[in-house]
Amino acid sequence: MSAPDYNTLYQFEPLISATLESLFNTANLKALGVAGANADYQKNRPRVEVFVTIGARFDNHYVVDAQGVRRENGWSGTIHLTAVTTNDYTIHAAYIAAIRELASRLDQLDLSNALVAAVPLQYHEIAQIHTAGTNSETKPEAGEFQTTLSYEMIFAIRADAWPGGLTQ
Fold first, then answer.
1. Which residues pair with 62 in a beta bridge?
2. What's the CA gap between 134 and 2, in Å, rounded?
3. Cβ proximity of 85 and 46 under 8 Å
4. Whose CA is closest to 120, among 55, 26, 41?
5. What are the structural domains of the chain?
6. Which residue of 2, 67, 137, 154 pairs with 128 in a disulfide if CB–CB is 3.0 to 4.6 A?
7. What is the pTM for the complete model shown?
8. How far apart, in whole angstroms, are the C-alpha atoms of residue 133 and residue 64?
């Protein structure tokens, strides 16, 4: 499905985190047999909080659109997935495993489908992903464990999303 205009294609920062948060919270909570997120989201445990940063253009990742204009369409980026659970190690370890399993195949998922995520990425994809490190901490005063799993990615505009199509 092509985007209505180029402006829509390049406004992706707010969508990436929202899509991934939707995906991880729905998928991981179901995988552990826990009810889905509710309106009291900040207190809901377990949950995944997502922070994404987009970096420089990836390599020579560009396309030529139907008007013959060269367009950037691939960027390096980092995804930080913070798992928050009650301070029960067994639950936390199972939750981290479920997150790792799903993250390992993000570049194989079609994130444009509302059945996958409540906030779909209609015109974009994670073209490649790999692990970039893990950081854990306990917060006994808050009664929770937190682990941040970081991933490096290549994020791109889908080939079929360009208004009018592509020439190359």
1. 72
2. 37
3. yes
4. 26
5. 6-161 (3.30.70)
6. 154
7. 0.84
8. 35
Both structure tokens of 139:
């917060």
* pLDDT tens, residue by residue, 70-97: 998 899 999 999 999 888 888 889 899 9
Kindly state the greatest CA–CA separation across the chain: 59
d(CA 145, CA 99): 15
d(Cα 144, Cα 87) in Å, to the nearest integer?
4
Q: Which residue has the higher pLDDT, 28 or 159?
A: 159
Q: Which residues contact 154 (CB under 8 A, 6 or more apart)?
A: 58, 61, 74, 75, 76, 77, 126, 127, 128, 129
